[in-house]
Sequence to fold (253 residues):
Amino acid sequence: MSIEITTDGEGLCTLTLNEPERRNPIGHARRQDLRDALAAAATDDAVRAVVLTGAGGHFSAGGDIRDQGARSLGIHRERFAVVSDMVTRMARFPKPLVAAVEGWAAGGGLALAMACPMVVASREARFVAAFTKIGLIPDMGLLSTLPPRIGGARARRLLLDNRVVEAAEAEGIGLVDTLADPGETVRVAGELALKEAGEAPLPRQFILDWFARDISEALEYEARLQPMLINSADAAEGRAAFAEKRRPQFRGC
Fold:
């Protein structure tokens, strides 16, 4: 089961990315499953708030490299329509939505966390963009969601230099909202989510809509460029270098 869904007696729904042996990659099938799980939670009266986390001590290692082979531009664009729907739902989710990050949130995993309006991270969590390492631009809305959290200049540097950000720094720069002890992120995230669920819903929704106002532009930009980049020679080299654990040799084509 790619996503484990549990709901407790207080109305807290926990969505767990559930492929721990591979650090919970975000492939096309999992994005579809997550989109559908979010849609169901949004309309379920028994659900008051949602926590998104990963199994096995990590949030997500990002996009599934096995899912990024050469395909027609049409197929890639169809897949990005799913990405757009999923991320838009997250950014404007009608109930409190909190990411609980243990271990790594890398690439698409970082983007997934940033799409959540609130992020709780373990004191041992680590974050990295890593898209340019495999010849791609950031996607899943990260071009829109990261700058409001940490500022445009800092976001630009993190997206370009792929530096690993440790948890303490992540809290200091606003990348995450709250730190928790290792193994406690889901509990802390759940408490925060349920507390927020007691606030007035309409002002909350209007605030989220304002902060998500630019996300459509970012998602359209990604959907236009990323399919071409995925099929590029540099992306193929990036995937090969990643698999072979070596430095890629990019040629700009």
Notes: The chain has a mean pLDDT of 94. The chain has ten helices and nine strands. The beta strands are 3-7, 12-17, 49-54, 97-101, 104-106, 118-122, 126-128, 165-166, 178-180. The first helix runs from residue 28 to 43.
